[in-house]
Amino acid sequence: MRRDVFQAIADPTRRAIIGLIASVAMTPNAIAEHFDMSRQAVSKHLRILTECQLVKQEQTGREIYYHLQPKKMKVVADFIEPYRQMWEAKFDQLDKVLTKLKSKK
After folding, report:
1. Residue from 52, 45, 16 nearest 28 by CA
2. Would you tell me which of 3, 39, 87, 101 could form a disulfide with 7, CB atoms 3.0–4.6 Å apart?
């Protein structure tokens, strides 16, 4: 079954894993050290992230390293962008109202 990016990032543990490997590739054991769960549970999260193509496995010798695939996060950014623009417009309107109220004092 193919999962989508939103299913992957819905889980806080998977979001934390993404944060861990965002800047440096890590082995499953190195990732598991950051969580209070079994290595098998971490592997399940990594499998889901891999299915969604958010992470990529790379075999180096006997070790498997997981790398973030940041381009896949563009799906999330594209979804959020219209809402970000809407909220920025709302905050700009609020700034204008507050500035107007301050000038009346």
Report:
1. 45
2. 3
Residues sharing a CB contact under 8 Å with residue 7, sequence separation 6 or more, in sequence order: 48, 52
Cα separation of 12 and 6, whole Å?
12
Q: Is the Cα dihedral 90, 70, 8, 12 positive or negative?
A: negative
Identify the three-state secondary structure at position 26: strand
Token pair 């700034």 in the structure block, residue: 95
What element of type H or E holds 83? helix 74-104
Q: What are phi and psi of 67, to 5 degrees?
A: -115, 140
